[in-house]
Amino acid sequence: MLESHQVEELICLVSSLDKPTLTRQFMSFSGNFPVDFTPEFLDGLSLERLRHIFVALCLQAQRVPMGEAMTTAA
Predict the structure, then answer these.
(1) What is the C-alpha to C-alpha distance for residues 41 and 61, in angstroms, rounded to an integer?
(2) pLDDT bracket for residue 70 (50, 70, 90)
(3) CA 19 to CA 43: how far, in whole Å?
(4) What's the pLDDT at 55?
(5) 3-state SS of the chain?
(6) What is the dihedral of CA 51, 18, 39, 46, to 10 degrees?
(7) Each residue's pLDDT tens digit, 33-69
């Protein structure tokens, strides 16, 4: 289980991401369970919904993504 400071860090990090960066994160997500989102599905979701789902994925996977990998532009 992530500690409270890790959860806070995760939420702050994800709240700063734009939609293209979040979409890249979903497409490259590596957890201990399969995730199968299409780019078309992700494009149809609001930015807030994407952020919510990504935080949930990270919490379920028990990991906080690396900061620099999250903010690097394509």
Answers:
(1) 21
(2) low
(3) 8
(4) 96
(5) CCCHHHHHHHHHHHHCCCHHHHHHHHHCCCCCCCCCCCHHHHHCCCHHHHHHHHHHHHHHHCCCCCHHHHHCCC
(6) 50
(7) 888 999 999 999 999 999 999 999 999 998 887 754 5
* Cβ atoms of residues 47 and 18 within 8 Å: yes
What global pTM score does this model have? 0.83
Reading the block at residue 62, the tokens are 């028990």
Only one residue has tokens 């369970």, namely 33
d(CA 47, CA 41) in angstroms, rounded, equals: 12
Task: Please state at what angle helix 4-15 crosses helix 47-61, rounded to 10 degrees.
Answer: 150
